[in-house]
Design goal:
The structure holds 2 protein chains of 2 kinds. Chain A is mainly α. Helices cover 61% and strands 8% of the residues of chain A. Chain A has one domain: Winged helix-like DNA-binding domain superfamily/Winged helix DNA-binding domain (Arc Repressor Mutant, subunit A). Chain A has a 3-stranded antiparallel beta sheet. In chain A, helix 1 packs across helix 2. By secondary structure, chain B is mainly α. In chain B, helix 1 runs antiparallel to helix 2 and helix 5 runs antiparallel to helix 6. The relative contact order of chain B is 0.07. Classes of the chains: A mainly alpha, B mainly alpha. At the A-B interface, helix 2, helix 3 and helix 4 of A face helix 2, helix 3 and helix 7 of B.
Chain lengths: 107, 169
């Protein structure tokens, strides 16, 4: 896996794009709903994350003729999807260890 | 507020503004149009947006200069990069001292001794304002990192590795 710091906002942006391609505002709203209103991204944070993901080739723009320049749509690339899956797998292992630890403590 | 937003957007590097500027403004306008009428919600929204822009501009410039993002996680994660708050305070005092020395030296060089020497109170006030501003910025960055949960995740991750290594033994 590439060495790329996946912070919580970045992870939520990736998860939002994993479902289907979205434009900036749709990502903002989706992240808010996914986190039950806990994570509210500013446009600065969102586009900082998008730029980093874009530079690393994890996301790409959907090329459409009729899309306005101020409303462009982004989607995950195959590399982005692969890395997201690895990150989710890492978190799954982590949760498993955590659950084991907690169970051991309770016993 | 849109004017302030556009003004803050100018803090970003030109290439970044060209790439994302219009989109960011459009998303900001869209989000603003759906704001509730409650004043507290509006204040929170504008505070979040403007702080996000300032931090984003800082990160974008850092990225452009050094070719990678600001290593917040690394500083936060590795124990050798953690230093006590007193160090921050001392660094600010030293910084203020250096600034004061430069100011005095420049006024002496300008041969204006006795006429435009800054008063002690104004110098102290300047130092205080500088320290408070810098402390607020540092506090905000640390608060943002704490809220993101990155540190908690990293702690768990390092703990997991230790569990695995113990298991191998």
């Amino acid at each position: 896996m590439e060495t790329f710091a996946i912070s919580e906002p970045v992870l939520l942006v990736l998860l939002s794009l994993a479902e289907r391609p979205r434009h900036g505002y749709a990502i903002l709203k989706d992240v808010e709903s996914m986190s039950d209103g806990r994570v509210l991204l500013s446009t600065g944070t969102l586009y900082g994350a998008l730029q980093r993901l874009f530079d690393h080739g994890w996301i790409e723009r959907v090329e459409e003729d009729n899309t306005a320049r101020d409303r462009r749509t982004y989607r995950l690339t195959s590399r982005g999807r692969r890395n997201l899956q690895m990150e989710i797998e890492r978190m799954r292992r982590l949760t498993k260890v955590a659950a084991l630890r907690m169970a051991r403590k309770e016993a | 507020m849109l004017t302030v937003y556009c003004w803050l957007l100018c803090l970003y590097p030109g290439s970044y503004r060209h790439e994302f500027g219009e989109e960011m403004t459009s998303v900001f306008c869209e989000a603003r149009s759906e704001l509730p009428l409650v004043m507290a919600a509006k204040i929170k929204f504008y505070r979040r947006e403007f702080c996000g822009l300032l931090l984003g501009a800082l990160c974008a410039h850092f990225d452009l200069l050094f070719g990678h993002s600001i290593p917040f996680r690394r500083f936060d994660m590795q124990p050798q990069f953690r230093f006590p708050r007193s160090t921050v305070f001392l660094m600010l005092v030293i910084f203020a001292g250096v600034m004061l020395t430069i100011a005095k030296a420049s006024s002496i060089a300008g041969d204006t001794v006795g006429s435009v020497w800054p008063s002690l109170i104004s110098v102290l006030a300047f130092m205080l304002v500088t320290m408070c501003t810098a402390a607020a910025v540092v506090w905000r960055i640390l608060h943002t990192l704490r809220r993101s949960g990155v540190r908690r995740l990293e702690n768990v991750q390092s703990w997991m590795y230790s569990v695995e290594s113990n298991g191998k033994r």
